[in-house]
Amino acid sequence: MDNDGMEKRALIAAVLCLLVLFLYQSFFVKSKKRPPQQPAPVEQVEREEIKEEIKEAPLPPERPIQIPSPEGKAEDVTVETNLFTATFTTAGGRLKDWKLMPYREEVDPNSAPVNLVSNSDDHLLPLNLDFLGPTSRIICNADKKSLILDRYGEEGKLSFSCTIPEFLRIKKEFVFFANQYQAELFVTVENLSESPLKGRLSLEWIGQKDQEKKGRSYGYVGPVAMIGEKVETKKLNKNNGLPDNVRWAGYEDKYFVAALIPRNSPDMGLKVNKLIEEKERVVESITMIHPQAMITPQRSLEQSYSMYFGPKDRKLLESLGVGLGKAIDFGWFNSIAKPLITVLNVFYSFTKNYGLAIIILTVLIKILFYPLTQKSFQSMKEMQKLQPKMMELREKYKDDKEKLNREMMQLYRTEKINPLGGCLPMILQIPVFIALYQGLWNAIELRHTPFIWWIDDLSAPEDIFSIPLFGFNLPFRILPLIMGVTMYLQQKMTPTPTMGSSQQAKMMEWMPIIFTFLFWGFPSGLVLYWLVNNVLTIMQQYFIRKKG
Question: Is residue 359 part of a domain?
Fold first, then answer.
């Protein structure tokens, strides 16, 4: 086999690794779908279960609480900043909307902004507080009807006071900043009665994932928390209620995260519930539960939280200093992918175009691996010189495989050749290929980012026009076609191997078509990367063959 054939196979092996990773994540990493069940009670029953999760030393019996029916009509309170628009309701001081103004649901700049509060049911809104019962049924007093922060560095406060006369008052004070996705929440629980009150303060976030669209991301959508130094997602369902070092908890999808960060009580429990599970949607809650506490008469309990409701931008997340940057996970080779995306952003700072930045990054990777590639080619050339002797040995010992293996190893030792010398340099490059694949697939930097002409979103497949075919609309895409052509040219530049089965040769002939089909639904940024890599490989093959 000549050097080009060996390189071709090594590259295909790398691509197959990428595809295995993609298929594994698509079909096995995602949460298993559970059978539909009736919506779980969301007011009293779930929260009573939460109260029994964490056992502590006995305290005086808590006074029974009767949550009053709402008196009056709930009103909306709006908060507008340069980055988001939020809507609260005076029913429990909960959150109805949190719209990220710089981010749109679609590429069209006139489309609706991304809303991190995806559930529309009024009784299932996030930021509900619970001490002796849910506050969602209490109509609270707000200290203002609206809050507008439009000057850089400006901050403002919004307070809700939720009172059960002669018994309990819960105050929620929010602090917002004009140019930050971060906000602060200060909670005060005041005992207005003449008896001690005991309970567990809890704060809840509720999120929803669309079963048909699978969120905004075609990736994991659901509860997430950082416990100690590890970020947990699906395992949270197995560890409900266990007290631990909870650094933050919330709800995430591919590009955005809503995170609640306890500031003075990390030793708490977590509870994850499926509130609604239907064919079209799943509504889930994740609740942070503080240790049991007693409030003596006319005294109060205080807790504080930071909140981050925004994009998975690594700089913004890491600036909070609680490990929130770990919410960005690029998979198996995360430690390689993050530096690659950092370099990509450096190139973007010069080019102002992420498509050009991808091209430059691909060229840089090819240059860095050039010594390894040369070493691989040299080893393959040496192996090529042994082909006649290897053929003789195979013919001579075709009926004795054990003898054949011994003679082959002796031949390698005599000629001082490592049979894996041509493959190992290529194998060393596979982690980088996979890491860059993961990085480009998940980086929010590419979301709704245009390249040139018809490519208006590097995070999604091209959307030029569709061709009706057998009752389906087949999207027509240019980049995957060009990539398939480059794979075909690579194949033509690679002479037919002197060894190997005819079945293997036929399989190789189908590879350009197979990969064109597989890349058809990939984001444009990924296809662009692999297209550029193919072109560079063709050039490399041409110069090596000309030199040799």
Answer: yes
Which of 329, 355, 384 is the C-terminal boundary of a domain? Answer: 329
In the prediction, which pLDDT does 503 show?
A: 58
Which amino acid would we find at residue 26?
A: S
Distance CA 178, CA 185 (A): 16
Contacts of 375 (CB under 8 A, 6+ apart): 421, 425
What is the Cα–Cα distance from 429 to 409, expressed in whole angstroms? 27
Look at residue 22 and tell me if it is in a domain. no
For 255, the 3-state DSSP assignment is coil
Q: What is the pLDDT of residue 420?
A: 67
Q: Is 246 helix (H, G, I), strand (E, B) or coil?
A: strand
pLDDT at residue 5 in the model = 41
CA distances from 360 to 11, 319, 343, 351 (A): 20, 29, 10, 10
Kindly state whether residues 500 and 359 are assigned to the same domain: yes
DSSP 109: T
Distances (CA, A) of 123 to 88, 120, 258: 13, 9, 19
For residues 317 and 348, membership in a common domain is answered with: no
Regions in the chain scoring below 70 on pLDDT: 1-71, 211-218, 238-244, 265-266, 377, 380-381, 419-426, 471, 494-506, 548
At 232, which helix (H) or strand (E)? strand 230-232
Q: Which domain holds residue 465?
A: 337-547
CA 173 to chain centre: 31
